[in-house]
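Consider the following input, taken from an annotated entry for Beta-ketoacyl-[acyl-carrier-protein] synthase family protein (Paenibacillus anaericanus).
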Amino acid sequence: MSNSKLNGQRRAVVTGIGVQCAFADNYEQFRSELRGSTGNKSHSRVITLENLERTTQQDYQKIKTKSLIDFNEYGLDSLKEAMKNAILSVNDLEEIKHKVGLVYSTSTEDTNTFLYRTYSEEESSFGTKFSEYVQDAIPINGKITVCDSSCSAGGIAAGKALDLIRYSDHKIVLLGGIETITVMQHSGFSILGALGTKGSQPFSNLRDGVGLGNASVFLIVEEYEYALNREAPILGEIVGYGISNDAYHITAPHPEGIGAKLAMQRAIEEAGITAEDITYINAHGTGTPTNDAMEVLAISEVFGHPVHVSSIKSLTGHTLSAAGIVELAATVAAMHEQYAIPNYKLHQPMEHMENIVFPEEAIPLHYHYALSNSFAFGGNCVSVVVKKITQEVS
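Applying the prediction step yields:
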């Protein structure tokens, strides 16, 4: 008899992942590169001050549609890969389509198409919404939610997916994050002085800002009993999330990490565990002086024991609204394979408390729970707790 409920609640498990980002074109490559086969190579697909192209209206008139990332296809490709890895077919979804939901995070939905059409004097309207595009290809008649709270949106989307499984009759939630960086985002981060010279260097004394990157990632989240009955592969379980807002500044985090601490504490409490149960944290870790200092302080105060902390933004760049999902995928992958993801580009580690460990290479690590942080402009903070489970036979 399987334990299909935890603390009386329905359980949400991850059964498949599909991903495209700056350093990987699929989940298998993503898994491999996270472990360190990339080394400390720089990735030309991450936007930094060194490779930022200042695109003008005249430049856009020369751009051909095929040179732009098709937002809808970009997202659908990762969703299809996640379904394939979850051994989930369109026919499977058709049978329960009223219990299949879609939750995704984005802040640029089809903006590149809009910009191209505007500057090329074509019809300046947005294309088909991603949710409608997906519904043309995949049967979904359940809840559809789009999250856009900038860099915390992915984590919030994960929490929404968990709630749909726990508190409704949904059997499956297609959980995703899609971001295609536009000239507006290039310009905005440049004006803020937030773009790093050589991209993100989280937790390094040399850090001077972020790199930006595209990402499309989907996780198949299923009700535990349903996943067991169809003998789906189970990579991990989403067990809790916490949301907060420090109401401090429009772009800067509270220097004492008040919002970050509260989000982590709430996530741990909702998961029904204690801080001591967490031994690996996938940090927001943008590589900006203020964010990293705040996050390290917050982690050191919430966790009094040794915790391994890493950020993958030196590989992915900051993927903005998709960051929480691509980093949740990384956390689940590492937890499933039982290691701590290394920090790339960690030259001259910043000063930190003794209980924080910054792995510089993939370290074998036995742990049952991990936490993923996502923080955003406006003081928005979210943390998600995932659990490694032993797959049971129903």
